[in-house]
Amino acid sequence: MKYYDEAHLPPTIGQAIDAYGDQDIQSIQLYGEIDPTHGFIVTKKGFYFCVKQPGFVSFDDLEDIIIHKEHGKSDQLILKGAKTARFNGNEEFCEKIAQAVSELKDLPVHYDMSDVDAIYYYGGIILHDIQDDVYEDTTLTPLQEEYLHAYLEEIEENKETELQTYMMNMSLLGDKILKLVEELELDSEEIDALEAAVKRDQEKQKSMFDQAKEMYEKNPDLMKNMTGIDLENIKNKSPEELNQMLDDLCDRFHISKDQLMQLAAKFK
Description:
elongated, alpha+beta, five-stranded antiparallel sheet, 10 helices
């Protein structure tokens, strides 16, 4: 999709207005073109769109602008008023429309997402901003450069990972990004949002861990049944046998030994 602001509208805008079925379309703030007869138009009056068929959402009673993000699914733009309109699209599509409408109606854009999705989203923004020198007077050491590139790779690699793996990886990555941010003494709204998401995720994980610990203490056989590990027998294992047990545990739950150690450190 190609995007145009009101100062740089293409000659095909006339075809679009005809296709959208309203000759009174005026004050075009943003035009998104799939082709000359399909796309969307943001005006002061409302949001026009034409994909399978033309449609219109009035801004007269607009109450909220929401972007819903969920791992493994398209983003969703939600324009909430007397009637709620939902539009699926990629991140750029939702962000551009939301920001254009936000400026027109002086309404903030709200994000609806889980804590791990917030870690993925805000963490990605922060890492790319560091890479692009958005934060002023920031100089990275060679080791911090390595961390930055490694964390960016983790963000990219987790775009389409299985949900449980993604959730665990984001929980671990959030801590690491905040540590890098602290070392660099950075501050921004995105960092505040990341800190809040990491804190909520940690509290949720601790609660789940405490519940599981209490359950296992009441019924030790549960641990053996779920992990294949008999806690009483661990005392008599050699280092080599313990190492093999860890390898088996990692294979069983499809995680690396490094991730297992990081999880253990979080709940020490």
